[in-house]
């Protein structure tokens, strides 16, 4: 088992395919195993989804902003700005970790799949990830 912690380049609010950036930070992968990836933040998330059509990234942003809009009048946690509490809710909905099988020394993602960073804050710093290879 090996573990590495790294920080992604800062990104604007939205959904971003980070597969290549993640791969560049990983140690040599075993022939067979698992990659567990965990984001150490409460206002961003990671997931796996469509990586071929950039419209999917736009649609994710639109749908989640519709489901959890900013400036909801009943939110109490507002001291960090109107995007903060919605960011926490969206992160909880999507999740903070993924697991990907490793086959023949490569991530065994589906043909159209990629790893997403889901950035929910208007101004965020780089996001820290913990990658554990089993």
Automatic annotation (TrEMBL):
It comes from the Bacteria. It holds the Pfam family YjbQ. InterPro entries: UPF0047_YjbQ-like, YjbQ-like_sf. Transmembrane segments: none annotated. NCBIfam families: TIGR00149_YjbQ. Belongs to the UPF0047 family. This is Secondary thiamine-phosphate synthase enzyme. It comes from Neolewinella agarilytica.
